[in-house]
Amino acid sequence: MGASALPADASVLAIDGAVKRFGSRTALAGLDLRLGDGEVFALLGPNGAGKTTTINLILGFLRAEAGTIRVCGIEAGEDPVGARRHVAYIPEQVALYPGLSGVENLRYFATLAGLDPSKDEARALLAEAGLAPEAHGRKAGAYSKGMRQKVGIAVALARRARLLLLDEPTSGLDPSAAADFSATVRAAAERGTAVLMATHDLYRVREMAGRVGVLSGGRIVEEIDPTALDHAALERLYIERLAEVAS
Ligand SMILES: Nc1ncnc2c1ncn2[C@@H]1O[C@H](COP(=O)(O)OP(=O)(O)OP(=O)(O)O)[C@@H](O)[C@H]1O
């Protein structure tokens, strides 16, 4: 696969041989992953496969015992703040101030990153992230999960993050909200943002990701082109890998 062959310094994300243990438990057993501008990679794996650990290593919240994790060439274990400057993390539940509107939340979170977008700029960013204009002035306490995620994406756009990390982005979304959020992610990728998402959602993987890695036993055991597989084949692959973990 062309993108995997990118040299480390040309990759937005370059993980080489990452090993992470918790006591006697090995969460990651030599993970390799390269991601270039505009690529969307889905990390597919059962509970406990190491998806959250991978995200925490990239964010520099954990340190690997072996291997390297570089974001735009910056080693996340050595300079987590420098690496995080290029990364936007969208957790499963994006926390916003419920009493503030979408515009006010965006402007507040942008100031934390040293930015000062005007109201109009904030509206433009929210629109770019796919949030309907009529919601911009509404209090975020009434936002759905998908709407909160879009505010998170708008903050990432404001910060010009090179890498988006998404944790279970479509779990709990209804089909139309999930399809809508998939379009937001694809649009971000088309503008050049690299996206890494941890997910169980086989249904959305094909429409969101250009690359899919099956994480099992702390390694990517198989990388597939999701367009080359129909849903049934993807599901079979996933179940086979799940069975391997259980056995
Ligand atoms: N802080 C910790 N202390 C001990 N063990 C941990 C810790 N964090 C993760 N682990 C273990 O490491 C392995 C990988 O966990 P991780 O949370 O990365 O998996 P995951 O793929 O994100 O799972 P899920 O889909 O349930 O979120 C699991 O065996 C887990 O029990």
UniProtKB/TrEMBL annotation:
Protein name: ABC-2 type transport system ATP-binding protein
A Pfam family matched in the record: ABC_tran
PROSITE patterns the record matches: ABC_TRANSPORTER_1, ABC_TRANSPORTER_2
Species: Methylorubrum salsuginis
SUPFAM superfamilies documented for this protein: P-loop containing nucleoside triphosphate hydrolases
Protein family per UniProt: Belongs to the ABC transporter superfamily.
Keywords on record: ATP-binding, Nucleotide-binding, Transport
Family matches, as InterPro entries: AAA+_ATPase, ABC_transporter-like_ATP-bd, ABC_transporter-like_CS, ABC_Transporter_VariousFunc, P-loop_NTPase
Record-annotated ABC transporter domain positions: 13-242
Keyword Repeat: no
Gene Ontology terms, MF aspect: ATP binding; ATP hydrolysis activity
